[in-house]
Amino acid sequence: MTRLSPIDAAFLRMESKRTPMHVGAMMTFKLPDDAPADFCQRLVQQMRSQPFMPDPFSSRLAHGRFGRRLPVWEDSEVDMEYHLRHSALPFPGGEKELGVLVARMHSHPLDLSRPLWECHVIEGLEGRRFALYFKAHHCAIDGVGAMRMVQNWLSRDPADRSGVGPWTVLARKRAERGTPTLRERVATPARAAATQVRGLQELVRNLTAMMQGDDSSVRLALQVPRSLFNQRISQQRRLGTQILSLSRLRAIAEAEGVTVNDVLLAVVGGAFRRYLTEQDALPERSLIASVPMGLARADGSAGTAAVGFITPLGTELDDPAERLRWIHRVTARGKHDLSSMPAAAQSQFALLGIAPLLLGQVTGVLPKLPPLFNCVVSNVVLSKDPLYLMGAELEAMYPVSFLFDGYALNVTLVGYRDAVAVGFLGCRDAIPSLQKLAIYSGEALTELETAVGLAPRKPAAKRRTRSRRRAS
Q1: What is the layout of strands, in order, in the sheet containing 59-61?
Q2: Percent of the chain at pLDDT above 90?
Q3: Does residue 24 have a pLDDT over 70?
């Protein structure tokens, strides 16, 4: 048995019917030119024939009296017919029909008595394409781990028709390691406890310095406004997607001396500002995002290896260029503060951030508490090279994340080849016209290009002014 880390155990305890704690992805593929009519059926059969998901997805949570308090993984048989499913889209098989189906699939919790993942091959997508949607519990994997899994699973060779990754070899190596001894089983928790204590001591020493200055993300966490995005959520979800050009994002980053991630945050901030203005719900203070930052995995283990920092999205600023520069100033400081911490202190900082979310969600009072941030905005990179599944080329990968109660919107971005796919996941009942956020993010990129001098300015259109209510 393998014990879950404190952070992974926290995500497990936050699971509820309204707030399932799984993350997912929707991938679209182009059929090979010589693909037979039953290509998707053959793909499903091939995927079912061999393991294609790594540890801990061949395990389940151990049952028993202390299963939820001291959760551990135990070996389990994987029913591939249950976990790998074959579906089809109704006519005309467009992006709308695909988005509706995936949002419905993502709304339902995983069965915690089984290995914590599902995969759906979806045929019938227009333009000789098909889709694949998978979801896995956050206690088993995070965004960086998911990207690494997909990179290992898919092939860079269009002629590779195997359709499976290297997990069979990995499973054999794990079996060769054997069962840990009694001494190892006793010593491992003791070492982990000692590491947690050292990490807490190191974190206390670092927090004082982190709170200095107006660009301190810790201080900004005390100034989060309540927004439309911070309300009690229902179980059902909506999904909005957008594709942004990576070359355009890089051009802005180079012109301003910032990172591509800063540009993406500024684009999201611009989309939020327009959307909330139209809803008469734009707070006077900037919306605040929690931005996860991946941590090094020395042992290549699964689970969550990320820590977040707080950054403004500049929604109170009308000038997109000013918004970008303010975001860059805070993110540069936040990354420096976290990178300067020892690994044990980073882990404690992550636990410190998730603790109020855990306690609030378990007790049901989280939507009533002052928000710690307004939404999560995460960014991961998949591959610069084209990837293939049994000869079918991956077009795009759209992330589909999870929601906390009281946090009705999540934004996740995935870089692949020359584009960034943006996934807006929102509560169906809390976020009206969610797809507008996806549309506005594309337009916010153009506005930012103009503001930094990379595109000609258009004559200002006359707009009718109207009074609007500001959210507190």
Answers
A1: 2-3, 72-75, 59-61
A2: 54
A3: yes
- Per cent of the chain over pLDDT 70 is 76
pLDDT at 213: 61
d(CA 370, CA 102): 32
Of 141, 185, 144, the closest CA to residue 53 belongs to 141
Q: How confident is the model at residue 288 (pLDDT cuts 50, 70, 90)?
A: very high
Nearest CA to 289 out of 304, 267, 274 is that of 267
Q: Which two tokens stand for residue 295?
A: 């941590």
**For residue 319, what are the CA distances in angstroms to 115, 151, 316, 444?**
48, 38, 9, 11
Looking at the DSSP bridge assignments, the partners of residue 72 are 3
**Cα torsion angle, 398, 400, 401, 406, sign:** positive
What local confidence, expressed as pLDDT, does residue 364 receive? 84
Query: What is the number of other CB atoms lying within 10 angstroms of the CB of residue 118?
Result: 20
Q: What are phi and psi of 79, to 5 degrees?
A: -85, 95
The Cα-based distances of 357 to 7, 287, 317 in angstroms read 12, 18, 29
Active site (annotated) includes residue 138: yes
Q: Exactly one of 22, 106, 138, 328 is catalytic; name it.
A: 138
- Structural tokens at position 308: 């977040």
187-201, 272-286, 447-461: least confident range: 187-201
Stretch 408-428: mean pLDDT: 95
* Integer Cα distance of 63 and 155 in angstroms: 37
Q: Which residues contact 268 (CB under 8 A, 6 or more apart)?
A: 289, 313, 377, 411, 422, 441, 444
Contact 264, 136 (CB under 8 A): no
Coil, strand, or helix at residue 61?
strand
